[in-house]
Structures are given as C-alpha cells and as structure tokens.
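Sample 1 of the test manifest.
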Amino acid sequence: MKKVSIKDVAKLSGVSISTVSRVLTGSAPVSKELTEKVIKAVQELGYSPSSIARSLRNGATKTIGFILPDITNPFFAHIVRGAEDYLRKHGYTLIFGSSDQDKNEENHLLDVLLSKHIDGLLFTGSGDSNPKLLRKIEQGLKVVFLDRIIRGVNSSYVIVDNKKGINLLLDHLIENGHESFLFVNGDKNTFSAKQRHVAFMERMKSGKYKHEHYFTGFSYRAGYNFASQFDDILEFDAILCGNDLIAFGVIDALEEKGIHVPEQISVTGFDDIPFSKHYKPALTTVRQPMYEMGQKASELLLLMIKEQLSTAEGIILDPELVVRESTRRTKI
Amino acid sequence: MKKVSIKDVAKLSGVSISTVSRVLTGSAPVSKELTEKVIKAVQELGYSPSSIARSLRNGATKTIGFILPDITNPFFAHIVRGAEDYLRKHGYTLIFGSSDQDKNEENHLLDVLLSKHIDGLLFTGSGDSNPKLLRKIEQGLKVVFLDRIIRGVNSSYVIVDNKKGINLLLDHLIENGHESFLFVNGDKNTFSAKQRHVAFMERMKSGKYKHEHYFTGFSYRAGYNFASQFDDILEFDAILCGNDLIAFGVIDALEEKGIHVPEQISVTGFDDIPFSKHYKPALTTVRQPMYEMGQKASELLLLMIKEQLSTAEGIILDPELVVRESTRRTKI
C-alpha cells in the first residue's frame, strides 16, 4: 500500500521535513502556527495515528513478541489465545514465532522480534540457559517466562506446579492398586520435563514401586514410536506420559499390539488439551489452565512495561487431576 | 527496554535531530562529514538496523497480518504454521488475530493491523462481503483470501475445491450402499459452508436420495448439540459433517444415545485435522492441505508486494478423500 510519508505532510503543510519531525516527535519546540499547519496536513492525509510516528514519540510499539515451540500443539494454541485476548483488550498486538525447540531458531526469532522493537516478550524456550536472552534482559528487555523458566535469571514467570501434577497422578494410580510405573516423558532439555522427572523419582525413592523413566519428545510420534518398540510393557501397571500427545501415541501403539487400555494397563497424560476428553478411551490426565496461563503472563508483562519493573513475580498455578477412562479403577 | 532514541544519536554525533532524520530517511542531502558522524553514532549506540528507521526509509515493515477465526482450531493453527514458515524464510514476520467470526471484531482487527503498517494481509473472514476491507483493497492494501473469499473483489485467494470434496464423500458413501443423507454443516455465513451446501443440493436434486441439510457452527459443541437433539437420526444412512470437529461432536452424541458408528450409521468429517486419524472410530473425511494453503497464500502475497500487483491469481487446491473407520463399507 502506498503509504503517506513525512514528505507528503511537509509538502502539504508548506514546512520542512524537519519541522514535521519536530512536531511529531516533540523533539524541539515549534511555533503554534507551524504546529497547526502540520497537524492539519497530518489529519488531511490520514497520516495519524500512525504506530510508527507513535514509536518515534514514546518508544512504545504496543507490540508483544511470543516465542513458543509449535503453534500446532493445542497446548500452545490455547495459551496464545489467552495471551491474545488479554493483550488486545489492552491495545497490544501479538507477534509470534514457532521455534520447534531449536535453540538457534529461538535466537534467530529473538533477533527478528527485537528488530520490531517489541515492548516485551513472552518466552517458552528450550534448555535451561540462554546467554543471549539473559543479556537482553540485563539491557532492559521485559520478559515473562511461560511454562518453562531458565537458570540464572530473576524474572517473572507463569508455570504450573509440575511436582503437584505428577503426585496427583501417582496418588490416583496408587490408590487404585497400581504398583509399577513406566514414565514416558517429553524432551529432556525442557524445564517441565525435568521438573516432572524429579518429582517422579522423588516419589519412587522409597523403593516400594518398580519403575522406569525415559525422556522422548512432546509429540504423538514420540509416544507411538516408544511404545511400539518397548518390549514387555505389560510388566508395568501404568504408563505416565509427559503430555497428552505422547499418551495418544502410546495408546494407539498398544492397541496395535492388541493391548487394551485400561483393562491391561493404565495410561495417563498431562495438559488436558480439548481432544483428550473425546479420545477413546477418554484420557485420565492433569489439566493445565492453558488459557489462564496466557492471560496471567500477559498481565504480568504489561505490568512490568507500565511500571518499568525488571521483574514482577512468579506465578505457580495449580494443576487439576482429571480422571477419565484410560486408568483402571479398583474402587469407586 | 530503554530504547536508544534519535535524540541520543543527535547528541552523540553533535548534530541536530533533523540532520539525523535526514540521514536516516534520505529525505534531503546531508554533507559527507555530518553523514559520517551520524552513522558512527548510530553504530556506537546500536541504533541500527532498526525496523522503525527502515520503515521510514522505504515504507516496508516486513510484517504480514493474518485475520482468522480461531487459532485454537487445529485447521487454522496448521495454516498459520505454513504461513509462518514461508514468511520467516523470506524475512517477514506474522502478526495475527482471532476474530471468532465476528464481523465487528474482524474490522477492529483490520484497524489494529493497519496501524502497524503491515505490508499485506492474509484474510479468512466471515460473511460474503466486507465494504471496509474492499475500500482498503481499492486504496492499495495487498490481500490474499484464505479458505474463504468474499463477493465484489477481484483478489488473490487460496481455497480448496469444496464441491469436489463433497462429491468425493458422496461417491464413497453411495458406492457403499448409502441412500439417505443428513448434512450437519458449519456457519451459514461462511463461504466454505455455503459452497458445500450448494454442492450437496446439486447432487441431491435427482430426487433419488432422501436428504436434509442444516447449518450449525464449525465446532465440536455445535455437532454434539445438534445430534443430541435430533430425533429419528437413524432414518439416515449417513451424516456428513461440515468439519471434523462437528463430526467428533456428532459421534459422541450418538454414542451417548447408544448408537454405534459405523455399524448403525456412517459419519464423515471435512479437513482431516491430525486428531481425526486417531479418533475412535478413526474418521472418514476429506483432507485439506492446511500447511500448503498457508504456504501458497504467503507466496502469492509476497509476490503481490514485490511486484506491486493488486491481484495475483486464485489457487484452488484439490481435496483428498481419506477413508477410515467411521463409514460402513459394503464392499472391499
């Protein structure tokens, strides 16, 4: 689209470009007469309100960046929707990018978003450190970590109590007579997978329960491949999965082996994405308040921007056990 | 983040702000000596390359807007991912917004995106006209319509052959002995639902088949509510659904009524979102090449921007029949 330029404004108002610039940026005083001419031309040409002029004026672009692993995972799509709704209500727009949990892609996205002069960043990254991001935070970039935090930074975050989530699942399984557990976890370099691993091993250290733990990836394919290739899977009473997508893959692979869920083995997920309720069997899982996570993180970020805080607070949301049909019940 | 401002550059280089502006925008000649001072200050302060300065210089923001119904529908999340990957490869960033198929929200989003000086727009709208958008197109806004087109505009689009999709489904059902059809379609104000309706009625006009058609909404809830409340549903051999989400809702409501799919009635979807393969029963549906749609639309849009075309071409992609377990087979 042919945009109205500062030149057009200068021409119509009969003043120099630098005078227009002074009026728009407030960088130096301009006489009332000339100011009025410029404003009239600006209005006539529809040059205002322009986000670019506003950016020059107050350094705010009203744009928030969001780096996340993959928008096609419903867990992230729902977080994004929560962020989007909150931010739009407050006059902000969201730019996002999928990193596929690739560190280089994350850093590339960071450069791209910074070149857009975002006012702040929502970040769901991989790994447990990111020197480049830390440097930007030290230089003043406002960041809220979502779902995953990284080491060495005292920043705001919104996460779910992963330890509690794992314990809710194990309580439910143990109460229902399960005594041996196979944990098919997600990507080993992610904060959430690591927290869940630690919580699981802590609970297992009593030595009362047979158990094994594996890191795979947070995808249907990872769950399917793991369960297809794992021999003697029926030595376990239950399979805990790192997220719902992994659980779907595990259940489908078991079915192909002729193993019935939950009659022969129980399977649990993590997240409660909308499809889990309608899976056959409907999935027993731990609900993360995805939409709320996106909202809360955006609220924190706008607070940090408005009040010029380098950090606001860390919010740990409660997960909720959702018992459905993929786990065997010994009592009602 | 405290951003380096044009004032800081002026101060460090010892020239006026208007001189800095002239150097950055190229709006008027500046002596070589002063230009070098400004460039040195710009580099020292890390004020370059700035997308805002670039915007002033060449009117391009390298930002594409995308207005779509709802990012939490996997159909759109996969289209977005296709667009995102293509655009990023070409140096562009995506800003998007969910409209919930609300016309006012669509127009509000349009204002927001235009205020960001987007270079072009991908648009999946509701209704069959939009005077405001048409005006913007006449004024030079580059738009590619995705999945849905509107009347009165000779613009670029990427859609799927909806007529062919419906006929593929009906061929499959009729070949397998189905003779009566209930069509639970999506939102009546959308292009795709209307096209599918027309295709269905055309095929039915021979009078050979008992049939009924209803517009509902493109959601699980709409399908579930419809099938829950529809009496004598077994008078039909098959239920065609406007998309996969509707089909999931219909199947679940039928199950609650004790009706077995496909033994007692066949159910089909439209889209082939990734969960449809793993639904129980796995869904017979029509695959839309979602990721490719996002890619193609982005390719057209960048072509229009680069070549300053008001329209490029219309692309109609082929849908593909995917036969799974939700339809009864009378022959192999």
